[in-house]
Write a structure and sequence with these properties.
Helices cover about 40% and strands about 15% of the residues. The chain is of the alpha/beta class and about 270 residues long.
């Protein structure tokens, strides 16, 4: 099978739900390829779940490129989208185009994702004009955590709801091929999905978006003892199993049970 294109993703709206997951590694890239995941996002969440940062703000363009190259090199069918990290696009249109170009050229990605609406519209339009597909991102925007103060549901007040709807329509007009909607009420996500002609991808946005995305570590239970967010479904608590394996290995080594006769090279 060939890799999905931006047209394939756009044409799925109203036809087939879009499956999307974050990915940062070789093993998961191959597994998601075999599973038939439609979109892979090399998210700036790599800062939290791989690099161990307390915020995505610390992620650099080079981090995104490094993990994007790994994923894109070993997944052959998913559409590959890479986050543009904090301050990689806000400074100027020229800088935004330059960094987006680096991610596409050196990270082998098919598109970039940018947080924000009207306030970054000129940067988004410039990147698209340079021939690079852009996915928008509205609602909860982790790169704005210092401004927000905490991670919380967005689009609750009438003013915030109107702002998100306005931004979604502006993003569509600018030429983005899809919009991620994060942590907004289900009814608002449904309204936006019905208003725009491009796909919406929800994360904590309810049942009526055109697709769903989750952080891969969340669905695998790989976040140590952190309580999963309400909108996350943990399909398998692999984190607990991994810790038990490490404990068993440590115990076997300490008690001279590994290696045993079956592990010796003669």
């Amino acid at each position: 099978m060939k890799r999905k294109t931006v047209l394939d993703i756009k044409n799925m709206k109203g036809i087939s739900p879009i499956s999307a997951l974050t990915c940062y590694s070789y093993f998961n890239a191959v597994a998601m390829d075999e599973a038939g995941i439609d979109i892979i996002l090399i998210g700036d969440s790599v800062g939290n779940v791989i690099l161990g940062y307390d915020t995505t703000i610390k992620v650099e363009v080079e981090d995104i490129i490094y993990h994007s190259k790994i994923v894109a090199s070993h997944n052959k069918t998913s559409f590959i989208v890479s986050d543009m990290p904090f301050m990689s696009y806000q400074v100027s249109k020229e800088k935004a185009i330059e960094n987006a170009g680096k991610i596409i050229k050196y990270g082998y990605s098919n598109a970039v994702k940018i947080e924000g609406g009207e306030e970054v519209l000129d940067k988004i339009t410039a990147i698209i004009s340079a021939g690079i597909p852009v996915m928008g991102h509205l609602g909860l925007m982790p790169q704005s955590i210092n401004k927000l103060g905490k991670y919380c549901i967005q689009g609750i007040t009438e003013k915030d709801k109107e702002k998100i709807i306005k931004d979604a329509l502006l993003l569509e007009k600018s030429g983005v091929f899809a919009i991620t909607l994060e942590c907004i009420p289900e009814i608002l996500a449904k309204e936006i999905t019905e208003k725009v002609k491009i796909p919406t991808i929800g994360i904590g946005a309810g049942r009526y978006t055109d697709g769903q995305i989750l952080v891969v570590n969340d669905i695998l239970g790989l976040n140590f003892d952190k309580k999963p967010k309400k909108f996350v479904k943990v399909y398998k608590n692999i984190g607990k199993e991994i810790k038990n394996v490490f404990k068993k290995y440590n115990k076997d080594v300490k008690n001279h049970l590994f290696p045993d006769i079956n592990n010796i090279i003669r």
